[in-house]
Amino acid sequence: MQGSANLNLMIKAARRAARSLVKDFREVENLQVSSKGPGDFVSRADREAERMIKEDLLGARPTYGWLGEETGGTPGQDPTRRWIVDPLDGTTNFLHGLPHWAISIALEHKGEIVAGVVYDPAKDEMFWAEKGAGAWLNDNRRLRVSGRRYLHEAIFATGVPFGAKQTLPAMLKDLAQLMPATAGMRRWGAAALDLSYVAAGRYEGFWERELKAWDIAAGLLLVKEAGGMVEGLREGQDPLETGSILATNTLLFGQVSKLLRG
């Protein structure tokens, strides 16, 4: 695997945390779980994975800033660089014994994501990208977004709001616009993997609201480096700032954005 020193550090950190998570996943019924709200769980496994990743990344790059789902943000001595980490994307899947969850690690430089890793331990799939170097799966498979150009052939992924989130009406409107025009919708509960699958051409696109930077930072770079387009759901929005994202191949972006932005 060819990559920068930072990328190799990210991959190594993801693999080490994954070994801990896999052990806990095998004994998911024994996890000590606390609830942060309806459908939004945090587990001991989640916190321990973030601790390990933070230890590895800041141990090697102590001047970088940090933004993690469980431990929040900490500015670094170097104000231009920041790690953005979700140690367990798909926590609810994890806690229900569903093998669809991932570790997401991104490196931001001067406000731009320059490296990203999304690791799915259950399938041993390591998605990774660096700015200008393409997107890849494991050691040697170059990723390209789907070449499908017709909506009726396309599959899209999204996240249906849980609990009492205020975006449910907007999501239902989105589904009413897109479902009749497409080959289907998928809701698998892990935004980082949804974006990775767009990069790999498994989905034609993904959109969602109310996400956090750690959910999408690595995935949006994967899509861009695989030849796709990533914007906010509203034109001019920055997905990392708003948590609103639309990612598709270039052939379908105009059609999908017209339906969702109309």
Summary of the model, kept short:
It contains 8 helices and 15 strands. By secondary structure, it is of the alpha+beta class. The protein starts with a helix and ends with a helix.
Number of domains: 2
Number of helices: 8
Low-confidence stretches: none
Question: What is the CATH level 1 assignment of the largest domain?
Answer: Alpha Beta
What name does the CATH topology of the largest domain carry? Fructose-1,6-Bisphosphatase, Chain A, domain 1
Distance between the termini: 43 Å
Name the helix and strand elements from N-terminus to C-terminus, one letter apiece: HEEHEEEHEEEEEEHEHEHEHEH
| Main structural class | alpha+beta
CATH second-level architecture of the largest domain: 2-Layer Sandwich
- Supply Rg: 17 Å
Shape type: globular
Strand tally is 15
Q: Helix amount, in percent?
A: 25-40%
- Spatially, the strands of the biggest sheet line up as 4-3-5-6-7-8-9-10
> Average pLDDT, to the nearest integer?
93
CATH superfamily of the largest domain: Fructose-1,6-Bisphosphatase, subunit A, domain 1
Largest sheet, strands/sense/barrel: 8 strands, mixed
The fraction of residues in strands falls at 25-35%
